[in-house]
Amino acid sequence: MACNDTPVDTYVPFSESTPPTGSNYTALPTPLRILLAILMVIMIAIGFLGNAIVCLIVYQKPAMRSAINLLLATLAFSDIMLSLFCMPFTAVTIVTVNWNFGAHFCRISAMLYWLFVLEGVAILLIISVDRFLIIVQRQDKLNPHRAKVMIAISWLLSFCISFPSVVGRSFVEVPTRAPQCVLGYTEFPADRAYAVMLVVAVFFIPFSIMLYSYLCILNTVRRNALRIHNHADSLCLSQVSKLGLMGLQKPHQMNVDVSFKTRAFTTILILFIGFSLCWLPHTVFSLLSVFSRQFYYSPSFYVTSTYILWLSYLKSVFNPVIYCWRIKKFREACMEFMPKTFKVLPKVPGRTKRRIQPSTIYVCSENQSAV
Q1: Quick one: 67 exposed, middle or buried, by C-beta within 10 A (0-12, 13-18, 19+)?
Q2: Which partner for 178 in 290, 300, 305, 351 could form a disulfide, CB atoms 3.0-4.6 Å apart?
Q3: Average per-residue pLDDT in the chain?
Q4: Is residue 356 part of a domain?
């Protein structure tokens, strides 16, 4: 949302044709605008279809309704909403260079944008904390019921944080400087405080917590992998001998469990890296827009905002692509939903069909083997 520095008691009417005060902005060349719009349409299709398959898998298969899958389905749903209610209007505005959807919808689109983004970030944060508790603290506390409660709380908090962008006292311009309502320059302390709270909630707090969690997880995985590698012949000897399963003492068998859990964690880590790469530029851009008048009214602001917004939307497409790449069950479900005439991709060799619970062996010691 673009906030001007007009005093509160001096109301300036919305204008869809008059550019904001300051320097004239520079739009992208027409061929480049069309190319970006086409790419965004492709992103909308991939984001909608890919994330819809995630939701359908969890909805149609009760066995898939674990806590982590419910969280991933919620993340997919927020990306679907972002693809349907925000991206199409941005794509049209990129081509026309004019906002054609009315001043009031400008506020609504800003609220929806931050709502769905906040929800997606909240789900990633919950997942990272859950992985931290399982792998580092050896505590598996998240069950489907608790996951549903946390999902409901995350939606409520996301709505409360994003809703002021609709009813706030600050003036919101129709975005002639950007292809979407973005945070704009303002001199009101309250508006600046809200902008800072928004970017802190969207990026800085989640990024800090997730970074700490994943660093601890990486350290734990590395330490345990070295322990297994160096002491494979003596690990878990007491438990294995009691069961009379001396064959399971082999390093290869223990590596199967560690490899499975490490691969699952690596998938979540890749999602975190994608979130960071897509949202760090947007966070810096938003802060500069709010606090730097020179940056906000510079001729290059429109071009910069177009690229930044395009990159932020890329995250909604990034997640299903990673699922398809990393998760075998997701690839199989994609093939099930795909018409037979399009099933031209070769089958990916399957892994050992074993159901491994969160309490799977991660650390083997002479006394216990648990997460």
Answers
A1: buried
A2: 305
A3: 75
A4: no
Assess contact for 268 and 164: CB atoms under 8 A: no
Torsion angle of the four alpha carbons 214, 358, 274, 215, in this order, in degrees rounded to the nearest 10? 10
In a domain, 2, yes or no: no
State yes or no: pLDDT of 146 exceeds 90: yes
Domain total of the chain: 1
Q: Report the candidate in 121, 119, 357, 167 with the shortest Cα–Cα distance to residue 261.
A: 357
Which tokens in the block code for residue 156?
């409520």
Q: Which residue has the higher pLDDT, 14 or 244?
A: 244
Which one, of 333, 319, 355, lies nearest residue 123 by Cα?
Answer: 319
- In this prediction, residues 244-250 reach a mean pLDDT of 45
> Looking at residue 246, which CATH number applies to its domain?
1.20.1070.10
On whether residue 369 sits in a domain, the answer given is no
What residues contact residue 133 under an 8 Å CB cut-off, 6+ apart?
139, 140, 141, 142
Token pair for 311: 């990159």
pTM above 0.90, yes or no: no
Which tops the pLDDT comparison, 41 or 330? 41
> String of b and e for 325-346 (b: at least 16 CB within 10 Å)?
ebbeebbebbeeeeeeeeeeee
What is the domain range of residue 50? 28-339
Length of the chain: 371
Give the span between the Cα atoms of 63 and 329, in whole angstroms.
12
